[in-house]
Amino acid sequence: MRIALLCCAALIAGAAIAQPAGQQGTGPGGHGPGFGQPGYGQGSPDFKLPPDPRAALEIPPHVRDFLRFEMRGHLEQLSTLMARVAEGNFKEAAAFARTGLAVMGNHPPGAPAPGAFMPQEFRAMGQAMHMAAAEVARVGDAAANPPGAQDWKAMMESVGNLTAACAGCHGSFRLK
């Protein structure tokens, strides 16, 4: 681990030293102002994003707000899950996945049911995410303590499937 950190530090230092004179502090490729310099991050006023190919979902504002709240919660849960995995605590990651991301439709009393307003494709992707989280829990439960190489491989594959489910839905749909 120490050797990897030293190699990274050497590469970064070498890249900084290798820049031609006058280009230190510039942005990528030596073009434009660098981070922390005046004008950094403003971009060109002519820059245009490509058209958004995602399907626009039009739902009532209170349902949209709740769905966004729920998605932020999922992101926080994913972050916590990843932290448990990074610690090598697969049993705790499994328990967390099982009671969080793997749970479908566990809305507070009186909360809207966003799925009722969504097309079947959206609901199927949501169910796939919850099932992928349940698989993370299954893999975590089956892992040795401490996890071995095969356990890490299986966990990384299951977490990859979970994040792919998230990215697939967010890449296919947007809320209006």
Structural features, described:
With 176 residues, the chain is mostly helical. The chain has a domain at 55-105 and 116-175: Cytochrome c/b562 (Four Helix Bundle (Hemerythrin (Met), subunit A), Up-down Bundle). 57% of the residues lie in helices and 3% in strands. The protein has 5 helices and 2 strands, in the order αβααααβ. It has helices at residues 2-18, 61-86, 90-99, 120-142, 149-172; strands at 55-57, 173-175. The protein has a two-stranded parallel ribbon with strand order 1-2. Helix 2 (61-86) runs antiparallel to helix 3 and helix 3 packs antiparallel against helix 4. The longest helix has 26 residues, at 61-86. It is globular and about 55 Å long. The model is unreliable at 1-25 (pLDDT under 50).
Features:
single chain; 176 residues; Four Helix Bundle (Hemerythrin (Met), subunit A); two-stranded parallel ribbon
Summarize, please.
With 176 residues, this protein is mainly α.
The CATH topology of the domain at 55-105 and 116-175 is Four Helix Bundle (Hemerythrin (Met), subunit A)
Given helix and strand content, the structural type is: mainly alpha
Placed side by side, the strands forming the largest sheet appear as 1-2
Number of helices: 5
Shape: globular
Helix-strand pattern: HEHHHHE
Helix content: 55-70%
β content, as a range? under 5%
Please state the oligomeric state of the protein chains shown: single chain
Low-confidence stretches: 1-25
Using only C-alpha atoms, the radius of gyration works out to 22 Å
Number of strands: 2
CATH top-level class of the domain at 55-105 and 116-175: Mainly Alpha
Identify the CATH homologous superfamily of the domain at 55-105 and 116-175: Cytochrome c/b562
